[in-house]
Amino acid sequence: MIAKKVFPFVLCVCLLACSRVPLSGRRQLNMLPENTLIDMSLNSYRQFLSKTPPVANTTAADQIQRVGNKVSSAVVQYFSKMGNAKRIHDYKWEFNLVNDKTINAWCMPGGKVVVYSGLLPVTSDDAGLAYVMGHEIAHAVARHGNERMSQILLTQMGGLALQIALSEKSTETQAALLTAYGVGTTVGVILPFSRMHESEADRLGMVFMAMAGYQPAKAIETLERMQKATGKSGVPEFLSTHPSHANRINEAKAFLPQAEKYLK
Ligand SMILES: [Zn+2]
Predict the structure, then answer these.
(1) What is the mean pLDDT of the chain?
(2) What percent of the chain is modeled with pLDDT above 90?
(3) 3-state class of 146 per DSSP?
(4) Which residues of the chain form beta strands (DSSP E)?
(5) pLDDT by residue (tens digit) across 180-194?
C-alpha cells in the first residue's frame, strides 16, 4: 500500500528534479534550487571567516590562490566547452588558507574553498594541492550537497519537501530547510557525504587536476601521505565516510589511465 502511494511521488520528483553529474554521467536527485543552497552557503562562509580570518600574503596563501585559480579555471573552461556553463554560472570562486592544524579542506556550493594549514604537509606541493582542490571542487560542482540534502528532505519530510523545494526562496523556506537538515551554520559545508560521493569526488578530482595540467599520478602519492599522516584516527571532511585508505589508493591507481586522458 505504501509502495503504491510512494512510487508516483518519487517518479514525479525525479521527472522534475533529476539531472546527471557531469563527467560521471550518474543520475542524481537535486530538489533544491541551487541558488538557495549557494545563498545559504555564503552566509555560513562569511560566518566562518569572521571567526577564522584567512591567512594573507604568505607563500602558502599564495599557493592556495595560485593552484585554486588554475584548477577552477580549468573546470570552468571544461563546463563551457561542454555547453554546460550554466551549471556553475553563479559560482564566485575564492580560495582561502586558514591557520588550523586539522587536516581538512572544503568547497561550498558557490565555489568558496577553504584549506586548513594542517593539510599542507600532506599535499606537499602544487600537484598534491591541486588534487585536494579538485576533490573539493568536485563535491560542489557535482552538487553533492544538494543531493544529500534532497535525500534527507525526501526521507524526513516527504511531500512537504517537494513543496518547499519548488517554492520561491524565502526566509521561511531557508529556515525550514535548516531545521529539516538540523545542522544550522554548517549547512552545505561539512556534509556527511556518502562513500559514493567521496569516490566520485576522488575520480573527478583526478580529472580536474589533469585538466589544469597537473599529473594525476600525484594524487596517489598524496593519498599515501594522507594515509601516513592520519592513520586510523580522525575523520576530517576530506576523509569522512571514505572507503579505507587502501581502497582509496587502489581506486585511484585503477582510475589513473582515464584521468590521464584529460592532461593538457
Ligand atoms: Zn570529500
Answers:
(1) 81
(2) 46
(3) helix
(4) 18-20, 27-29, 94-98, 105-107, 112-116
(5) 544 333 444 445 677
> What nine digits make up the cell of 32?
533544491
Q: How far is the CA of 171 from the centre of ligand 1 (A)?
A: 29
Distance CA 37, CA 87 (A): 13
Residues 6+ away with beta carbon under 8 Å from 52 = 98, 99, 100
| Pair type for strands 94-98 and 112-116 | parallel
pTM above 0.85, yes or no: no
CA of 58 to the centre of ligand 1 (A): 26
One-letter amino acid for residue 216 of the chain: P
Can you tell me the distance from the alpha carbon of 258 to that of 39, in angstroms, rounded to the nearest whole number? 35
pLDDT at site 4: 40
Chain-centre distance for alpha carbon 188 = 9
Per the structure block, which three cell numbers stand in for 120? 599542507
- Cα 105 to middle of ligand 1, angstroms: 9
Catalytic residue set: 136
